[in-house]
Specification:
The protein has 579 residues and is an alpha+beta fold. Helix content is 29%, strand content 25%. It contains 17 helices and 29 strands. The strands form nine sheets. Strands 3, 7, 8, 9, 10, 11, 12, 19 and 22 form a nine-stranded mixed beta sheet that branches. It has a five-stranded mixed beta sheet with strand order 26-25-27-28-29, sandwiched between helices. Strands 4-6-5 form a three-stranded antiparallel beta sheet. The structure holds adenosine-5'-triphosphate and magnesium ion (3 copies). The site of one magnesium ion has 2 residues, from strand 19. Adenosine-5'-triphosphate binds next to strand 8, strand 19 and strand 22.
């Protein structure tokens, strides 16, 4: 590709609503353009990255025996009524009507439609197993779309659905997909972890999430550095032993001193980066009697000021509640605050506060409503403020770093991740609801056993950037880069030698199958380098008159701090050797 014929459009500044690096950099590099909340155009530069993601996913899905099809984006509601999801799913499901007043949905996922296909097409056990997949636009009316492509409303997902004769066969299909996912994420060149996830009603180890490790990730993941135990927080919590948790209590011993602790203390206590958005926090410590039996818990309410920056945060124990603040049980905390001890995020009171005595409730209410910086959402309590839905920033709950790992092989650590993939055994939920059966050897109808497997195609580039960037811009792994190599000629318009050498190298690399871009726009070197560093092309060759006279070109990897001189004769092979 020649830059003059392509579309390069970079920005000096990111829009104010871009809170994380990937969002800022994708906007600045001209990869995406916002059309509405959570709705983006994939601009030519961004689309090249998305297509690379798709190509790898498609190749590995095909290799694993999955079969590609494309299902409609707009789906008649009747299928969604069969499974009850038309009514049951919340506002995330976008419902629309046609001119005849008939209901439709925009697919957030496609279990219903694929199950409809299976019940029509799969008749006999001889046709099993089958795994259908698509790479398609999805729409989810997310409560809080944010971070650009990371949590969009319209996005692209690869979704696959397996059909099997029984649970054992479904588990085998699941294992094939889990392995295909490992191959895919290995090829992307990202640091990731496959973590056990809650598989809902089915139980067992039948659901895993693929999490790209990044401090800005929305999910907390729990793992044991000394074994291969890894789970998302929900799953880890479900496995955590009931009763007093020594590690949690220990963490709470470090509870910051009201009014005195620094932001760094709080961040360390919570195990979150300093930049985390925190609005409030409920911590509780188990109180045990001499015999070690739980007697209750002491609740701390920490109100953290400031939205995006913990530097302004002040930690307080609610004044007036120090005295006569009775101990609550964990069940009470759960019931009244709708959260677990150690919960980090805005308070979402499920019920009017009865956790504390009336007098204390009044003090609490006054204090909260007096603290203007604090953004509280309270359901069922009218304290004169109509506040938006709370955002759960992080959730440490019952499992904290230092707890013994469930496999007994060490202690747990916690890090943050971005969910880029999810594999799941569904069982017969959809096939029963929609009566999707096949005939077994005895000619008897049996419900199809299903699995589903998603990859966030458009979330993936954002996750890759969170993991790979610096102050100058994006640093793409080779597999995802919009162009793998950029050839930057200096003074191409003035020097015929430079022009000839640049075009020759460009042609030679193209002939080797290298995804190369020749920057023939005639930009000054500073601006040209800044563009490609922002866009994140991993390999750069600079061709200048001076270099040519010495018989040398300059090569620099995006991560290198300085260029390397390479004899111009062998440059194409030198670059091919780097890829
Ligand atoms: P999340 O927990 O982030 O909301 P999810 O569990 O709801 O994701 P799944 O239903 O498992 O998502 O969908 C499969 C994949 O689709 C996810 O692993 C994620 O990579 C991607 N995905 C889900 N929601 C979005 C979104 N709003 N924007 C971009 N990608 C998304
Ligand atoms: Mg979701
Ligand atoms: Mg999820
Ligand atoms: Mg998921």
């Amino acid at each position: 590709m020649k830059a003059s014929r392509f579309f390069v459009s970079t920005l000096k500044e990111a829009p104010a609503d871009a809170e994380v690096a990937s969002h800022r950099l994708m906007m600045r590099a001209g990869m995406i353009k916002k059309l509405g909340t959570g709705i983006y155009t994939y601009m030519p530069m961004g689309l090249r990255v998305i297509r690379k993601v798709e190509a790898i996913v498609r190749e590995e899905m095909n290799r694993a025996g999955a079969i590609e099809l494309t299902m409609p984006v707009v789906q008649p509601a009747e299928f969604w009524q069969e499974t009850g999801r038309f009514e049951k799913m919340g506002p995330e499901l976008l419902r629309i009507k046609d001119r005849h007043d008939r209901d439709f949905v925009i697919q957030p996922t496609s279990e219903e439609v694929v199950t409809d296909i299976a019940r029509q097409e799969i008749r006999s056990y001889k046709q099993l197993p089958k795994n259908f997949y698509q790479i398609q636009t999805k729409f989810r009316d997310e409560r809080r779309p944010r971070f650009g492509l990371m949590r969009g409303r319209e996005f692209i997902m690869k979704d696959a659905y397996s059909f099997d004769r029984d649970l054992d066969a479904a588990k085998a299909s699941y294992q094939i997909m889990a392995q295909a996912y490992r191959n895919i994420f290995d090829r992307f060149g990202l640091r990731y972890r496959a973590v056990a996830a809650d598989s809902g009603a089915i139980g067992g180890d039948l659901s895993e999430e693929f999490q790209v490790i990044a401090a800005t990730g929305e999910d907390a993941i729990v793992y044991c550095p000394d074994s291969n135990y890894a789970a998302n927080m929900e799953k880890a919590e479900a496995l955590a032993p009931a009763g007093p948790r020594p590690a949690a209590a220990k963490a709470l011993e470090k509870t910051p001193t009201p009014g005195k602790s620094t932001c760094a203390d709080v961040a360390e206590l919570l195990g979150v980066p300093l930049s985390t958005t925190i609005k409030s926090l409920v911590l509780a410590t188990d109180i045990v009697d001499e015999a070690g039996n739980p007697k209750g818990s002491q609740v701390w309410l920490l109100l953290l000021r400031g939205d995006h920056d913990m530097n302004e945060i002040k930690v307080s124990k609610v004044p007036g509640l120090d005295q006569g603040f009775r101990f609550a049980t964990l069940a009470e905390i759960d019931e009244h605050f709708g959260c677990k001890p150690g919960y980090l995020g805005p308070l979402n009171l499920k019920k009017p506060v009865k956790l504390v005595a009336d007098r204390e409730a009044a003090v609490l209410a006054d204090w909260i409503t007096g603290a203007n910086e604090v953004d509280f959402h309270m359901t069922g309590v009218n304290w004169g403020r109509d506040l938006p839905e709370p955002e759960i920033v992080a959730d440490l709950r019952n499992v904290v770093a230092g707890d013994a790992s469930p496999d007994g092989k060490g202690v747990l650590a916690i890090e943050r991740g971005i969910e880029v993939g999810h594999v799941f055994v569904l069982g017969t939920k959809y096939s029963k609801d929609m009566n999707a059966t096949y005939l077994d050897e005895g000619g008897k109808p049996q419900f199809l056993e299903m699995g589903c497997y998603g990859i966030g195609i458009t979330r993936l580039p954002a996750a890759a950037i969170e993991q790979n960037h610096d102050e100058r811009g994006i640093i793409w792994p080779d597999a995802l880069a919009p162009f793998t190599v950029v050839v930057c000629p200096i003074g191409m318009d003035r020097s015929p030698e430079v022009k000839v050498a640049a075009e020759a190298l460009y042609e030679e690399l193209l002939a080797k199958g290298v995804d190369v871009l020749l920057d023939d726009r005639g930009e000054r070197p500073g601006a040209m380098f800044a563009d490609w560093e922002l866009i994140g092309v991993p390999h750069r060759v600079v061709i200048s008159d001076r270099g040519l006279k010495e018989g040398q070109l300059e090569y620099q990897h995006r991560r290198d701090t300085a260029a390397t001189k390479v004899p111009s004769a062998g440059i194409a092979d030198f670059i091919a050797g780097k890829l």
